[in-house]
Design brief:
Blueprint lengths: L5 H38 L9 H4 L10 H5 L3 E5 L5 E5 L11 H10 L8 E8 L5 E8 L2 H9 L12 H51 L13 H57 L6 H32 L8 E4 H11 L1 H6 L3 E5 L6 E4 L1 H18 L5 E8 L2 E8 L6 H6 L8 H6 L6 H11 L3 E7 L3 E9 L1
Parallel strand pairs: 6-8
Antiparallel strand pairs: 1-2, 1-4, 3-4, 5-7, 8-9, 9-11, 10-11
This protein binds adenosine-5'-diphosphate.
């Protein structure tokens, strides 16, 4: 999956923010328009309920629709042709039961009743009895009428002189508040969501670093994020893995150093104890006859030889472990070289009656190698073959040149256990027989392996207990 770069996410976020703001402004404008419409609808002429007498009047007085009129404090009166009040609907706020004709006419002209408190509207009609009647709509006062009329539509007791300006200011203020509120809400939510794309991976990285600094080298971080953060994640995991590997190597090196020191002390202690014991016996005159003296001295000699061999091997091995150690490689015929090694060991091979099959190419193969060291490596393997196998064991040595030079040294002898096979190239690893006879130092194959590796090659062992062993040395051309 191709990962998105953080830069493109930022661009996308800016675009979303711009569109979001645009939307909020549009919503606020729609709100403003809606509010203004609502106010004008509340004060608009056609929406104003009818309060004129001619509109309210119905022949059946008791069914006249005076609901709105009453709600704004007005009432209806029906007067007979003598201007006497014969019917009232709504709560009458004056106590006039009989009008004076002139007063009545006057009040209609000035739109003010005789006591100067009510607005009147009149409708004249003929009753069923053929007489004249009047229907009068009355309000306590004009100001009260206007106030009451507007009450259901707005909650503000605004100045009656200029209500429209007030309405616009209110609507504008409401829209501005809405705009502000929506902007704040939008940016809080938006920054919360967008910041997650940064904070989430950073939290993972910080936690990983925390765990790592506390020494947990098994720490690995895993998250899906932008290309840049994924790069950091991969580098972090790689770094921890490297650190873990070098830590493991350091621990292993430390362990093997400790084990080596223990092995060396053990291997030196055994012959030294014997030498001390024998020499003490000789010094204190505890051995009297010449035969025994000779035997003791020869024990001391053998043990000294073994110690010398151990110290020599140890010295050689540690020299090779040193990164400063360099081979002295010279081009030479490696076939002839192997032939000479076999020849120099032939005496022992014959003595052990080993049936050796040698298969070497006729032609020479010129190869650059360190004669002394490779001789040591191959001799170790050949002498092991002679030393650890019974008389008459079948064995073979062959050299082939393919993509590399392969030298095989094999036998159909005792073979090795699985445990021994796995660790035989490690220093101080010896098989049962070697331990029992106190023969080997356990450093031979470790040295051989080191030499082959210094030549850029590999050493490989195939072995099975009771069936034999084959060592293959592969040297690159
Ligand atoms: P050393 O010979 O000093 O004990 P090496 O590293 O040379 O140490 O060999 C390690 C062990 O491998 C020996 O102790 C022996 O048990 C086993 N070994 C090596 N070569 C053979 C072989 N050809 N057949 C059987 N065992 C072998």
């Amino acid at each position: 999956m191709k990962q998105r770069r953080y830069k493109s996410t930022l661009t996308r976020n800016y675009a979303i923010a711009a569109f979001g703001m645009f939307g909020i402004v549009i919503i606020s404008i729609i709100f403003l328009v809606f509010r203004l419409n609502l106010y004008s609808a509340g004060t608009g002429e056609e929406k104003t309920p009818k309060i004129e007498a001619k509109d309210i009047f119905t022949e059946d007085y008791s069914n006249m629709n005076t609901q709105y009129l009453e709600s704004i404090g007005g009432w209806v009166e029906i007067l007979d042709d003598q201007y006497k009040v014969i019917f009232t609907k709504g709560s009458k706020k004056d106590n006039i039961t009989q009008y004076d004709k002139n007063d009545l006419i006057n009040s209609f002209e000035k739109k003010v009743n005789p006591k100067g408190t009510a607005y009147n509207s009149v409708y004249a009609f003929k009753g069923k009895d053929g007489r004249d009647y009047l229907c009068i709509v009355k309000f306590p006062s004009l100001s009260e009428q206007v106030n009451e009329a507007l009450k259901p539509h707005i909650d503000l007791n605004f100045n009656r002189k200029d209500p429209v300006d007030r309405l616009i200011i209110t609507a504008l203020a409401e829209s501005a508040l809405l705009l502000l509120f929506m902007t704040i809400l939008f940016f809080i939510l938006f920054s919360k969501i967008t910041s997650k794309t940064v904070t989430k991976p950073l939290t993972y990285i910080r936690d990983g670093l925390d765990r790592m600094t506390k020494g947990d080298l098994n720490t690995r971080i895993d998250f899906n994020s932008h290309y840049e953060f994924t790069e950091i994640k991969d580098s972090f995991n790689y770094m921890v893995e490297r650190l873990q590997n070098s830590e493991r190597e350091r621990e292993e090196a430390e362990k093997s150093k400790k084990r080596m020191i223990m092995d060396i002390s053990h291997d030196l202690k055994t012959p030294i104890t014997s030498i001390t014991g024998y020499s003490k016996a000789l010094c204190e005159g505890m051995v009297e006859d010449e035969e025994s003296k000779k035997k003791y001295l020869s024990y001391i000699y053998d043990k000294s030889i073994r110690m010398t061999k151990l110290i020599e091997d140890l010295f050689r091995f540690s020299k090779m472990e040193d990164s400063e150690f360099k081979l002295n490689r010279q081009p030479s015929d490696i076939v002839e070289f192997l032939r000479e090694i076999i020849a120099s060991n032939y005496g022992e091979i014959e003595a052990k009656e080993i049936e050796l099959d040698i298969d070497l190419p006729q032609e020479e193969i010129i190869y650059s190698f360190d004669k002394i060291e490779l001789d040591r490596a191959l001799t170790n393997i050949i002498t092991n073959m002679i030393k650890y196998n019974p008389k008459g064991t079948e064995a073979f040595i062959e050299l082939v040149k393919e993509n590399s030079i392969k030298i095989k040294i094999g036998d159909k002898g005792v073979g090795m256990s699985k445990d021994l096979e796995a660790s035989v190239f490690d220093a101080f690893v010896r098989g049962e027989s070697a331990r029992k006879t106190d023969g080997g130092t356990g450093l031979g194959l470790a040295i051989s392996k080191k030499i082959v590796e210094l030549h850029g090659g590999k050493i490989h062992l195939e072995t099975e207990e009771g069936k034999g062993s084959i060592f293959t040395i592969e040297l690159p051309l």
